Amino acid sequence: MAATLKGRASRRSGSPLTPYLFLTPYLAIFVTFVVIPAVFGIWISLHDWDYMLDSQIFLGLRNYADLLDETSLPYPEFWNGMKNTLIFTVASVPFLIVIPLLLAMLLNVRFPGRTFFRAMFFAPYVLGVAVIGLMWRYLLDGNFGIINSIFRTDIQWTTDQPWAWVALVGVTVWWTMGFNAIIYLAGLGDIPAEQYEAAALDGAGWWNKFVYVTLPGLRPVLIFIMITTILASANMFGQSYIITNGGPTESTKTAIMTITELGLRRYQMGAAAAESYVLAAFLALVSIANFWLLRDREAAKERRELKAERREIDETRRAGASA
Amino acid sequence: MVAPHFSALNRRRFMSLAAIGGSAAALAACGGGSSPRDTLAPTAAPSGDGGKAGYDGPAVKLAFWNGFTGGDGPMMKKLVDQFSSEHENIAVTMTTMQWADYYAKLPTAVTAGKGPDIGIMHVDSVATNAARNVIQPLDDVAKALDLKESDFAPVPWKAGIYADKRYSIPLDVHPLGFYYNKDVMEKAGLDPEKPPTTNDEYLAALEELKKAGVQGHWATPFPFTGSMTIQSLIWQFGGQLFDEAGTKVLWAEEPGVTALTWYADLIKKGYSPAKVAQDADYIAFKNGENAFNWNGIWQVNDLKQTKINWGVAALPNIGGTKAAWAGSHQFVLPVQKTPDDNKAVASRVFINWISEQSLAWAEAGQVPARNSVRESAEFKALKEQAELATQIDDLHFPPTIPGIGDCFAEFEKAFNAVLLSGTDPAKALEDSAKRAQKILEDNAKKYNR
């Protein structure tokens, strides 16, 4: 064992520090822009902080305690923002997972103009949130919008609930489905055609092929899409900021919107930082739960069995040697 | 939408913050190590003539930031170009951005030592920025310009003073006005040359319009210009938003409830559609779909570009006391991390010069802050502006205490809830006033630390 390791090391030319050297640029940027601000943010969250003022007042955990105190100023705003974030996430994620999958399977079929359609569906994603937000705000305008005019409806898409949520989810799905679809497409391309052939030989129909070949083949992609989509939805800001202005009556004001307003408009950086960390903690929990729910139970079981087998073999060998 | 920073094209400003993501890291990254007062060198004290004697030093370049994104922008640009051509050794570069962007960017730029040499601020932002060390005192400029309180409307004048020092020079006053569509009025059998001036006349006119199938006055639930409209009504009904000292929130008192109820009743009585979309009230006015719109003087030039037949007058007196909301643009000098004496003098020469061109600025759709210009024959020739300037003695400005914008956010939430969620006006105002009161007290503590 030791010999093989040594052999491998000697085959590597140059200093053992080389890989770390290659990592340095990334690490430097990561430390400067993520680690240091993140740690510094914790420090800020313990203060009544305004970087333009002379002194920062140390509050200990009061900014956090305020988020648990119903009578505090930030409490109603923050939890309203969290509730709205949850509503948007729960309402948008299923569509953002399922619709792009169907779209990807459709675009995976060979037909003339396939590349054109792939580009078409991806196109909105290229646009910035300001562009799509502004555009849809005018299209959805309840008094003059073309949407009402086309469908002959009289709906206040931006100032009435539940229509505001319908509009925001709809716009977000239209805007970002292309991105998820492209990732699904890449995943679909990685599933060997032989598996479908084998499934077909075993008499599997399209549904069985989908359940027993496509879905398991897409597992890593699915996990990636689930996690990024949930995070993206939980970080929704621009759409409701531009299209509904957080309204009607704060009902589409997301957590990030609340935090931004508190920190950058009211200059309560400390309280805003505390809210950011609470939000981040929630998102971390959701991501961990996600990993855990989507973990490959079969593969984990196989790995465990393999390990147990090896151990057994080792033991029998040792037993043989001692005998 | 928080601080009431008003400009010609406020309806566009919602975009400005869209680019700001509010993650923990982003917020944390905003925090500087120490406060600017520790790190910034004391501002150079220029010669003391406040720019009156002109500038004859080496050539300098000045950066001038503002939020004149509407029709007022090109007008200011013209003035800046004229200044540059008249002053060989001073080159001024004007950068225009959305007001919200500007207010968010300025403190950061100042901390980084990249702030502009000259800026513009609204009357209700001066105190906040003075308290936050974003702008520097300019008593010498006021002295040099021979600015006297008697030559200005009191509030825009006093707004510039924070902690006994002057931080800004008033440029203009922009009041709310009553725009009416003459064609629509005529169609409903109303005299287009006699816009209503009292509550009875106003409601009678709306009733006539309703009979003609026109919802006359659309009640927007958005700050622009719903907030200014309701504030004007509160003053008209004899109320106040804050007490004189800016220590108490008073909008939940009876006049506030009456005002908001009057506004919400526009919908109940069928004079306005329910749940009006953002800006739809003004767009409808331009399309001839409604007849009346209470909007800022800054829309004068915008409406001149339309084909509708319109007029503008002082706000009708609904509540019994003449009153109208107004804001004011003010010149400020942002704090410089590395002060440059030459630039400091040149900046003062610039402010001094522009301040004397306030008639040219009035053409951009503003009322000059100076009484003398406002009373000149040349200004009176600007029909619409002069008409709105008649309100000068009845104008009410936001209080000039640090962080006041935070309170207006609560006010905006209150009427939004009444108009969009059917909350009872008295309850909405009471809840919001309670929160605003807390914010007011918190801010008093914060800015007096």
TrEMBL record, chain A:
The keyword Transferase does not apply. The chain crosses the membrane at residues 20-44, 86-107, 119-139, 163-186, 221-243, 276-294. The keyword Electron transport does not apply. One of its GO terms (biological process) is transmembrane transport. CDD domains: TM_PBP2 (cd06261). It is found in: Cell membrane. Its main location: membrane. Pfam families: BPD_transp_1. Keywords: Cell membrane, Membrane, Transmembrane, Transmembrane helix, Transport. Residues 82-290 form the ABC transmembrane type-1 domain. GO terms for cellular component: plasma membrane. It is a multi-pass membrane protein. Belongs to the binding-protein-dependent transport system permease family. This is Sugar ABC transporter permease. It comes from Tessaracoccus antarcticus.
From TrEMBL, chain B:
The keyword Signal applies. Residues 1-28 form the signal peptide. This is ABC transporter substrate-binding protein. InterPro entries: Bact_solute-bd_prot1, SBP, TAT_signal. It comes from Tessaracoccus antarcticus. It comes from the Bacteria. Keywords: Signal. It holds the Pfam family SBP_bac_1.
